[in-house]
Amino acid sequence: MAKGFRKKRSPISALTGPTGIAYTDTQKAETLANALEDQFQLNNIQNPDTDNQHMRLVDRFFINDNNFDDTPISTKPSELLQYIKKLKIKKAPGKDKITNKMVLNFPVSIIFQLTNLINKILHSGHFPQAWKTATVIPILKPGKDPTLATSHRPISLLPVLSKLAERIILNRLNDHLQQNDILIPQQHGIQKAFDRVWHYGLLYKLIRTNTPLLN
Questions:
Q1: Alpha helix positions (H), 40-159
Q2: CB-based contact 165:102 (threshold 8 Å)
Q3: How far is Cα 143 from Cα 166, in angstroms, rounded to an integer?
Q4: Measured by CB atoms within 10 angstroms of the end CB, which terminus of the chain is less buried, N or C?
Q5: What is the DSSP secondary structure assignment for residue 149, as one 8-state letter?
Q6: Lowest-pLDDT range, 115-119, 139-143, 144-148, 191-195?
């Protein structure tokens, strides 16, 4: 922690925003937040009737609480340890300030408790809100105008415990997609796919493929 305070950081220059020049840290943070909000917008709805139908199906699905079957999806301490051993010490921590080095030195008792917690997440379908909250660090893009908010890209620092749980969930999701031959060979990347993904549409596709879901 002391090393972090000693490290010299380049301050963000004054930013040009829609309401004028942002000079203070609070004004800069608000300007950057507004710029990111503009980027993370859904694509235009092309078929409102179909989209509304999908939204109603997803809502009914979660209201009925039938998003899980009896498929064994539990993890074991040995699997969790595999992911812990791959953690890189120099990675920055999330909002909870738990570092990768701390996790690498967890005693066995904590490993068992964390395994139990992740299993609760897998079986209840609820992902803790605190684990979804990231600390966003703006990084200036090379060669871009530092006075423009759009010249900065966001780096999201999530809690390391959240990332461990996500890796286990991803492993289950990949197994499901491969075993059921769901992904098509023609699938490819799309510009700003993550920024503009329609969550209801994604959930609808996961429901149609009988994929265990988390919320």
A1: 48-63, 77-85, 100-104, 108-124, 129-132
A2: no
A3: 34
A4: N
A5: G
A6: 191-195
Q: Are 206 and 213 in contact (CB under 8 A)?
A: yes
Phi (first) and psi of residue 30, to 5 degrees: -65, -40
For 117, other C-beta atoms within 10 Å of its C-beta total 13
Residue with tokens 């921590």: 93
First to last CA, the chain: 33
Question: Over the range 77-104, which residues count as b (16 or more CB within 10 Å of their CB) and which as e?
Answer: eeebeebbeebeeeeebbeeeebbeebe
Please write the tens of the pLDDT for every residue from 122-137: 888 889 999 999 999 9
- For the entire predicted model, the pTM comes to 0.78
Is the CB of residue 152 less than 8 Å from the CB of residue 33?
no
Do 127 and 121 meet the contact criterion of CB atoms below 8 Å apart?
yes
The alpha carbon of 10 is separated from its chain's Cα centroid by a whole number of angstroms, namely 27
Tokens of 13: 């220059």
Which residue in 146, 59, 134 sits closest to 94, CA to CA?
Answer: 134
Give CA–CA dist 14/55, Å, rounded: 42
At residue 88's C-alpha, the angle toward residues 121 and 4, to 5°, is 100
Query: Token pair of 34, please?
Result: 């507004």
User: Biggest alpha carbon distance in the chain?
Assistant: 57
